[in-house]
Design brief:
The complex is a heterodimer of chains A (262) and B (254). Chain A is 41% helix and 18% strand. In chain A, a hairpin with a 3-residue loop joins strand 3 and strand 4. Chain B has 10 helices and 8 strands. Chain B has a single domain, classed as 3-Layer(aba) Sandwich (Rossmann fold), CATH 3.40.50.300. In chain B, strands 3-4-2-5-1-6-7-8 form an 8-stranded mixed sheet, sandwiched between helices. By secondary structure, chain B is α/β, with parallel strands linked by helices. Classes of the chains: A alpha/beta (262), B alpha/beta (254). Chains A and B meet through helix 8 and helix 10 of A and helix 7 and helix 9 of B.
């Protein structure tokens, strides 16, 4: 399954997706990735439990940025209260999207999906994001997506052509089953990828590593346990303050080198 | 009407482990378990192989019904068909201690709104047959937006030691309020990675904190190998701590 056509059309931007079961360290991996990717990059947090911005040291409320869900609420409200019924919600949303949702930082920009408090699923916000990603991605060398825990986001096919898909694993049989399910869903919904990489999280020991090396996929290595990461995540401090030589940062660098991203 | 208890939390905190030990030690008969996680790991932890038992998940059953519908029988009676499958025993696993229904993995594009809706409908029909229902949730928040269980007796939030867990609590409250899910008791449970210092930190959230699930090398080992947690020794750290937590919440144990 090679995304050949995509490479010809949009050679400029690499689509990178980090996924995995909950609590494995997807956002930590993505946050540390932000140090090394060639700028400019766009980071998209697809998790309603948004934590990526915190880890990147960005307080979105403080800088006056809104989430996709909030912008969507605004668009709906505007239409209900006196806006022209001829302008579809989607077009209104697009107007909000650029100015209100896109955080512009040094070297990378950030967009977050946000938390919804209405009944129903995330299909519509995800759909809007899917449409805008193709517009947005032209401006970036890398588009990096941090996924919510689990599998459902894959069924929504937000990026149909992925360059590098990283699955962050915890040391359990459930992770092995998870890998199989990810592949089955990608195939059925028609998402293509160039590389499917496995990453071990900080909880792995050698025995567990061996177990996953035999999973038949490309195993890129392990993100080392890092006391500082644990401490920072507990206190909600940004990970960009971590020193270059801390175990987690060094292992992410090594992994990205192996994947040819640095 | 069976009382509905829901176990939720961020990913990897130990929701299914807690649910499994909850099932093992609570005195409730008959007891229904629902695994709402597409990554379906609860059955394995309970020592049940649904496939081997010839049981379908709700998602499996739905795709079968839809495939059949495409072959000519176009009438949309999905809930009825599903009810018949339930009565026929194809989507419910029955054990001495519990019955089990699983959501399963969906492989077609879209969301889990329909399978979740089917579980909701099923629950309305069979709720009266049970004394208690335990729902093991998928990681994250989206399942709450779907309001599968509008009236919860006890909501257990399993926490990992991070600032994200503190924010997660706020978001659960935000979503449940928005979609109008009520729960009588809102309980916090710390996971095996908690320390005293962290416990203190989360106690400040002002919610009812029941205690923490102790670290247990046996749980780690069995989860790595995909073995059942139902036969852990009675006096293992995880068993002891879950029993203590349940007593704290006022449950009668076996």
């Amino acid at each position: 399954m090679k995304g050949v056509r995509h490479k010809e059309v949009n050679r400029m931007s690499k689509k990178i997706v980090s996924t995995g079961r909950g609590g494995t360290g997807k956002s930590t991996f993505v946050a540390l990735m932000s140090r090394y990717l060639n700028p400019p990059s766009l980071f998209i947090d697809l998790d309603p439990d948004l934590s990526l911005a915190d880890m990147l040291g960005i307080d979105l409320t403080k800088v006056g940025k809104r989430t996709i869900v909030e912008a969507l609420y605004d668009a709906v409200k505007e239409r209900q209260h006196g806006g022209s019924p001829l302008t579809p919600v989607e077009d209104r949303f697009k107007g909000f999207m650029w100015g209100d949702c896109l955080f512009e930082g040094k070297g990378f920009d950030v967009i977050t999906l946000g938390t919804k408090d209405l009944e129903g699923c995330y299909c519509y916000p995800d759909h809007l994001l899917r449409k805008t990603i193709s517009d947005l991605s032209k401006n970036y060398k890398n588009v990096v997506i941090d996924s919510p825990a689990g599998l459902e986001h894959l069924n929504r096919n937000i990026v149909s052509q992925i360059d590098d898909l990283f699955v962050v694993l915890d040391p359990s049989d459930k992770s092995l089953i998870h890998i199989k399910k990810v592949k089955a869903i990608l195939k059925e919904v028609g998402m293509m990828y160039d590389h499917f990489y496995l990453l071990a999280n900080y909880m792995f020991d050698e025995e567990a590593e061996k177990y996953f090396k035999e999973a038949g996929e490309i195993y890129l290595g392990k993100i080392e346990y890092d006391k500082k990461v644990e401490e920072y995540n507990l206190k909600g401090e940004p990970l960009n303050k971590l020193p270059e030589d801390s175990p987690a940062v060094r292992s992410v660098r090594k992994i990205l080198e192996k994947a040819g991203l640095i | 009407m069976g009382k509905i208890n829901v176990i939720t939390g961020r990913g990897g905190t130990g929701k299914s482990t807690f649910t499994t030990l909850f099932t093992r030690y609570v005195h409730a008969k008959p007891l229904l378990l629902i695994d709402l996680d597409p990554d379906e790991s609860l059955a394995k932890m309970l020592g049940v192989d649904m496939e081997k038992e010839g049981k379908w998940s709700i998602s499996d059953a739905l795709s079968r019904i839809i495939a059949k519908g495409k072959n000519g029988k176009g009438k949309d009676d999905t809930p009825d068909l599903l009810r018949r499958m339930m009565e026929g025993g194809e989507i419910i696993y029955r054990d001495k201690k519990f019955d089990l229904i699983t959501l399963g993995t969906k492989f077609s594009p879209g969301c889990y709104c329909l399978p979740d809706e089917m579980i909701k409908e099923t629950l309305r029909n069979i709720n009266k047959n049970y004394e208690m229902i335990l729902v093991d949730s998928p990681a994250g928040l989206e399942h709450l937006n779907r309001k599968v269980t509008p009236d919860i007796e006890d909501l257990f939030v399993i926490l990992d030691p991070s600032d994200k867990s503190a924010k997660h609590i706020e978001r659960i409250k935000y979503v449940t309020k928005g979609v109008n899910i009520t729960c009588k008791n809102f309980y916090l449970v710390g996971n095996y990675r908690f320390t005293d210092e962290i416990e203190e930190y989360l106690l400040r959230t002002g919610e009812k904190y029941l205690g923490r699930v102790a670290y247990d090398p046996l749980v780690r080992e069995r989860n790595l190998k995909g073995e059942s947690l139902f036969k852990l020794p009675e006096d293992s750290p995880s068993s002891m701590s879950v029993k203590k937590i349940l007593r704290e919440a006022g449950y009668v144990l076996i």
